[in-house]
């Protein structure tokens, strides 16, 4: 693995890192939007230590799907 990384030009290395980071941001924003939260929360993952706190807060915050009354139906897939 290190031979692969050492054989890359700097621009190739930065391209791979930016693609992985972009994929992480887009996928995380999509998950946040599906959970009913603002996708901009994903920007907190860019800051060290803040990202751990953001994931912890997201895991323990109230979830609209779980907190709705028992008789209320879930939203159809095209509305949520």
Structural features:
single chain; 80 residues; mainly alpha; 4 helices; 56% helix; transmembrane helix
Task: Give the proportion of residues in helices.
Answer: 55-70%
The number of distinct structural domains comes to 1
Helix tally? 4
Compute the CA-based radius of gyration.
18 Å
Structural class: mainly alpha
β-strand percent reads under 5%
The count of strands amounts to 0
- Shape type: elongated
Distance between the termini: 42 Å
Low-confidence stretches: none
Mean pLDDT: 82
Most strands sheet: none
Order of helices and strands: HHHH
Protein name: DUF5652 domain-containing protein
Keywords: Membrane, Transmembrane, Transmembrane helix
Organism: Azospirillum thiophilum
Transmembrane segments: 12-33, 40-61
What is the gist of this entry?
Keywords: Membrane, Transmembrane, Transmembrane helix. The protein is mostly helical and 80 residues long.
Report what the structure shows.
With 80 residues, the protein is an all-alpha fold. The chain has one domain (2-67). Helix content is 56%, strand content 0%. It has helices spanning 2-6, 10-34, 50-60, 64-67. It starts with a helix and ends in a 13-residue tail after the last helix. The model has no long low-confidence stretch (mean pLDDT 82). Keywords: Membrane, Transmembrane, Transmembrane helix. This is DUF5652 domain-containing protein. The chain crosses the membrane at residues 12-33, 40-61.
């Amino acid at each position: 693995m290190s031979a692969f990384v050492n054989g890359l030009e700097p621009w190739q290395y930065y391209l791979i890192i930016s693609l992985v980071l972009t994929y992480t941001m887009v996928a995380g924003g999509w998950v946040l939007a599906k959970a009913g939260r603002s996708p901009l929360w994903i920007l907190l993952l860019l800051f060290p230590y803040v990202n751990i706190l953001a994931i912890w807060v997201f895991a323990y915050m109230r979830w609209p799907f779980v907190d709705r009354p028992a008789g209320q139906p879930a939203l159809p897939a095209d509305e949520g």
